[in-house]
Write a structure and sequence with these properties.
mainly beta
């Protein structure tokens, strides 16, 4: 950490835990003794250092198992369907049925490689029974990544596909680490700054968390919700789920998925499951709205309307489609609305129709907005909109109980999933939130079961907002599986917690400095939005 950024006068306390026994308490009051993280073997060395960043805001770094011996590298082979597979035409995946794995391993062994078959099982969670995920095929055990990569090269030359993998990322509960976790805690009783989400200059582009933090003069920040990354899935940077900024709903929910709800005072932070309804109203009639500030026809993470393909339910990292949509656009979307076939009603700042343009797409007037229609919805918009007449867009958010939510200008809401902790108990919901994909156990294996960098958020029993990052995809930081993430959140005292975007997106900054180690080879990843901790106003 950079002492110039954190301030030389800030209090520093170190807590060393061996076998879960706490040493002296940190400089900030905490309810009850610190508990060792529930990661790896019992009795690992764990250190904690805590700094005060501003009144009511602390940063705690936890390192567990720093002295752990290195684990082995291996090569994980992609398994094709094979002659014995229930679906011999299925594309290669990390996991398959036992017969397909055995068939592939036998072929690899015949080519003089040290292949083995391993059974992968996963624990049960709140809405998923767990158990067998399938079988994987691996080759060799190596003392270094370079040795594993050299073997991968030989395997590719022999006609096999795969990747080098560190066995510490598998999630073995007896591993000895290391783990590196950073935690920001905002105590509303002492906090006089601001806590808010930022998407940068516009929704349709990505910015680094550090860039968003510097632009706002933030004391600290973490990356936040899931977002569109691939241009084929929409506008890169667009939130892939709910986004409320300064009280304005600028991205619709993936219906029913959890979200982090925060106030700029740091009070009343909550994890809530949200749904929404929108309507376009004009000329004495109305039609349902499909989306807000996204490319029409592309619904990232799904969870939209009944006519979406392949599903109206949440389906993570999948882009559902709908040829017939009404999508509203705000000035926050970007310089121009998406171009394509269809019709667009362009509105002035008072909500009156300035023009109907076809094909759709182009700049918006200052303070203006628009509604785009595609497919059969063109006729609907034509019936509603007339130049010079008002066209109204209505948006309603509701919580899991069906109660209407009316965000104030001090409210931010960020998308996430799955849920991790509810009412102080581990409560993991991958099936509800679209991380269980029938017929694609390899997705669950890579996304839920294996260790990855993670960003978590929630609220503890004292009403404090807690933001957590865990580094991963390295030999010096193993990362967390989703079950481990939930266990860590609970051990840190969170009453309610949700998983935010992780992997290469996981970033925590203090001032302008990135204090964790983002896992992308290119360094810090540009993201869709971030959660900022702002200093007190003078």
């Amino acid at each position: 950490m950079n002492s110039k950024v954190l301030g030389a006068s800030m209090a520093l306390a170190v807590v060393a835990l061996v076998g879960g026994l706490p040493a002296p308490a940190s400089s900030e009051p905490r309810p009850g003794p610190a508990r060792a993280l529930p990661l790896g073997a019992v009795g690992l060395t764990e250190t904690r250092s805590t700094r005060t960043l501003q009144p009511g805001v602390t940063l705690t770094r936890i390192v567990r198992g720093a002295d752990a011996p290195a684990l082995s590298w291996t090569v994980e082979i992609s398994i094709p369907g094979g002659a014995t597979s229930p679906d011999p035409d299925a594309p290669p995946t990390a996991l398959k049925d036992r017969a397909s794995a055995d068939e592939l391993a036998a072929g690899i062994q015949a080519d003089a490689f040290d292949a083995r078959v391993e059974h992968v099982t996963t624990p049960a969670v709140a809405d998923y029974a767990g158990g067998s995920l399938g079988w994987r095929v691996r080759v060799g055990r190596f003392g270094s990544q370079s040795a594993a990569t050299a073997e991968l090269t030989r395997l590719r030359e022999a006609g096999y596909a795969g990747s080098a993998a560190y066995t510490g990322w598998d999630g073995n509960p007896t591993d000895r680490g290391p783990w590196r976790v950073d935690m920001l805690t905002i105590d509303p009783d002492r906090f006089r700054g601001g806590l808010k989400a930022s998407y940068g200059p516009d929704l349709e582009n990505r910015e680094r968390t550090s860039e968003l933090a510097v632009a706002a003069g933030a004391t600290a920040a973490v990356n936040a919700g899931f977002f569109v990354l691939d241009p084929e899935a929409g506008a890169p940077g667009d939130p892939a789920g709910v986004g409320v900024y300064d009280g304005r709903l600028l991205s619709e929910p993936v219906n029913g998925r959890p979200a982090l709800v925060i106030s700029d005072t740091g009070r009343h932070t909550a994890v809530s499951r949200l749904t929404w309804r929108g309507r376009v109203v004009g000329r004495g009639a109305s039609h349902p709205l499909d989306g807000i500030d996204r490319v029409p026809g592309l619904i990232r993470n799904c969870g939209g309307t009944a006519d979406d393909t392949p599903t109206s339910l949440p389906l993570h990292d999948t882009t559902c489609t709908d040829d017939d949509e009404l999508v509203a656009f705000t000035p926050e979307y970007g310089r121009q609305t998406p171009r394509g076939d269809g019709l667009e009603a362009v509105l002035d700042s008072r909500g009156r129709v300035l023009e109907l343009r076809s094909p759709r797409g182009g700049p918006l007037p200052a303070g203006g907005s628009s509604v785009q229609a595609t497919g059969s919805s063109v006729a609907e918009l034509t019936a509603l909109a007339r130049v010079g007449r008002p066209l109204r867009v209505e948006r309603t958010l509701r919580d899991g109980s069906g109660h209407k939510i009316s965000p104030s200008s001090t409210t931010s809401i960020l998308n996430g999933g799955p849920e991790l902790v509810r009412d102080g108990r581990v409560h993991i919901t991958p099936a509800t939130d679209g991380m269980v994909q029938p017929g694609n156990e390899s997705f669950y294996y890579g996304w839920m079961h294996k260790r990855n960098p993670r960003t978590l958020a929630g609220v503890d029993a004292a009403g404090r907002t807690v933001l957590v990052t865990a580094d991963g995809r390295g030999t010096d930081a193993l990362g967390l599986s989703i079950p481990e993430s939930a266990a860590v959140a609970r051990s840190l005292g969170l009453r309610d917690a949700v998983n935010l975007d992780g992997g290469g997106s996981t970033t925590m900054t203090v001032g302008a400095e990135v204090i964790n180690h983002p896992s992308d080879a290119a360094g810090e990843r540009p993201v869709g939005d971030a959660l900022l901790i702002l200093p007190a106003r003078e």
